[in-house]
Amino acid sequence: MRLGLYDDRPVLITGHRSDTVTVVDVAEASGDRFGPDPMHLWEVWDDFRAWGRDRAAWADRAKGRPVERGELGPPVPRPRQIFAIGTNYRSHAAEIGLPAVPSVFTKFATCLTGPDTTVALPSDTVDWEVELVAVIGRRAEGVPRERAWEHVAGLMVGQDLSERTGQFAADPAQFSLAKSHPGFGPTGPWLTTLDELTNPADLAIVCRRGEQELQSGHTGQMIFDVPELIAHLSAVTPLLPGDLIFTGTPSGVGHGRTPRQYLRPGDRLISTIEELGHLHQQFTAT
C-alpha cells in the first residue's frame, strides 16, 4: 500500500508517472470509516492497513483521479514527534567520526512539506542530506530490536535541509533550529508499507543536484539501523503512531567537502530511494 496526502486528505496511490499520480480518496473509498483527517489514520493504523491492503474492499467505491505530483503534501503532515539522527552512515562517519551511540535531535513539524516544492534559501550556507524516514505505526515503548519492524507503518524519502551558519553559530550546535526553516523537511512522495518492498533494510539512496551526483549509498550501511534506532529511542520515550524518524544521511554533504559547497538559487535537488520514489526541490533566493 502507498499512502499519500492530497488537499490535506489521505489518499491511496494507485498509479504514478513522472509528473502525475493517480489517487483514491480514503474517506470516500471507506465510506468515511477512515479520514478525512489524515492524522486519524494513525490512531487506527492496524485496522486501516488491513482495509487498505484488501483492494476489493475499496476499489469499486471511489474512482481514482490524476493529480500533479506538486499538489501532494507530506504523507504525515502533523506528527507529534520527529526524531532525527546525526552521523549514521559509516561513510559519513569517516568525514566526522564514528559515534558510540545514536546522536539524536529533532526537526520541528512546521518545516514538513510534500515531495515537489520550491524552497527559499535563508542564507548562502544551506546544505543537503537525503534520508530514509521511518514512520511509526504502533506505540513503541521499550521495544527490543528483534520486534522493532512490527512497529513501523512504512518508509518514505526525506530531505534534512540544513542551514549551516545557524547550526554552528552556538556552542553546542543548534541542530533543530537550523534544520527547521520553512520547507526544510520535504517528505514523501508517499508512505510505502513494508510488504511492498523487496528488502526494507537495504535500499539504494541517492541525492543529485541537477545531473551531479552528490550522495550515493545503501541504507544497509547505517551504523544504527531502523530496528536499533527504535530500540534506542523507545527505551527512553514512547514512540507514538505517526511519529517520524529521519535516520541519517550518507557521505557527500556540502559542509564536508573541500572546498565546502552549498545550495544556490536556481539549483534543482533530486533525492531518491530505491522502491520509495523521489523528492524534487527547486531553490530560490529569500
TrEMBL record:
<keyword id="KW-0479">Metal-binding</keyword>
<dbReference type="Pfam" id="PF01557">
    <property type="entry name" value="FAA_hydrolase"/>
</dbReference>
<dbReference type="InterPro" id="IPR036663">
    <property type="entry name" value="Fumarylacetoacetase_C_sf"/>
</dbReference>
<comment type="similarity">
    <text>Belongs to the FAH family.</text>
</comment>
<dbReference type="InterPro" id="IPR051121">
    <property type="entry name" value="FAH"/>
</dbReference>
<dbReference type="GO" id="GO:0044281">
    <property type="term" value="P:small molecule metabolic process"/>
</dbReference>
<feature type="domain" description="Fumarylacetoacetase-like C-terminal">
    <location>
        <begin position="82"/>
        <end position="283"/>
    </location>
</feature>
<keyword id="KW-0378">Hydrolase</keyword>
<protein>
    <submittedName>
        <fullName>2-keto-4-pentenoate hydratase/2-oxohepta-3-ene-1,7-dioic acid hydratase in catechol pathway</fullName>
    </submittedName>
</protein>
<dbReference type="GO" id="GO:0016787">
    <property type="term" value="F:hydrolase activity"/>
</dbReference>
<dbReference type="GO" id="GO:0046872">
    <property type="term" value="F:metal ion binding"/>
</dbReference>
<dbReference type="InterPro" id="IPR011234">
    <property type="entry name" value="Fumarylacetoacetase-like_C"/>
</dbReference>
